[in-house]
Amino acid sequence: MKSIRKLVTAFNEKAGKLSQSDFLVPICLEGEIRLFGLHSKKIFEKGMVVYVGRDVSTADLFAKLVDSKCVIPDVKSQLAYLDQFFDSLSGFKIGEFVRLLGLQGASLEKTTGIPLMKKVNIP
């Protein structure tokens, strides 16, 4: 069982916002692999690699996927997608924007993203 300390979190490009609690997991929908938000239950095109702070295994993500009531047609292939996702994710740095390489596999590729800005009120 593989484990890693970073995950991909959802990024809404139109709003330019990062959803820190919505982690993305690859799932197979209608024969294509898509990034599924565990919290929002929406499909995303890209996300940002973030540090989680503890080891997360493929079994942990699979359990969260089952808890989100997502329909999983084939458990073995879903676990294989998670393994491939973890292998691919280990090659990226924290803060990089990523998306799926293609619609048939769970490999990631680096992509460009809007720089995140935070408003700070100056007293």
Structure description:
This protein has 2 helices and 7 strands, in the order E-E-E-E-E-H-H-E-E. The chain has one domain. The model has no long low-confidence stretch (mean pLDDT 84). It is 20% helix and 41% strand. Strands 4-3-2-1-5-6-7 form a 7-stranded antiparallel sheet. The longest helix is centred in the middle third of the chain and has 15 residues. Helix 1 packs across helix 2. The chain is globular. The chain starts with a strand and ends in a 12-residue tail after the last strand. Strand 2 and strand 3 form a beta hairpin. With 123 residues, it is an alpha+beta fold.
Strand content: 35-45%
What assembly state would you assign to the polypeptide chains in this entry?
single chain
Count the DSSP helices. Answer: 2
As laid out across the biggest beta sheet, the strand order is 4-3-2-1-5-6-7
**Low-confidence regions:** none
Radius of gyration: 14 Å
User: Rough shape?
Assistant: globular
Number of strands: 7
